[in-house]
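Database export, one record per block. Field names are fixed; values are copied verbatim from the stored entry.
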Amino acid sequence: MFNFLKKKTKKEKKDLSNKAIIYYSLADDNEVKVNVEIPDYNSDSMVKLASLISTIHSDSCKINTIEMIKEFLSKDKQEEMLVEFLLYITSLEGQKKVEAEKPCILPSDML
């Protein structure tokens, strides 16, 4: 799972070009710093970024990250990518709510 000591080959480094990366760090003053890397402004990057953000379990952290990305894309005049990102993240969150409403044990399982 964690390959800190493994040397990356040229092929592995090349595969990172279409992915979104999010780093969280804690500063000396206990302030959380967020660094988001989006190599290209394209649909694939926005889909991957939204998928990555949907894995965050803390609602406050998720909202802060989405707000930061929203501000960044607005500053860079990437309104189309912003709309696509927001639509995709909204659809992913909607899927989670539907899955959460299903009971863990169905009545038919009791029989």
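Remark 1: The chain is about 55% helix and 10% strand.
Remark 2: The longest helix spans residues 79-100.
End of record.
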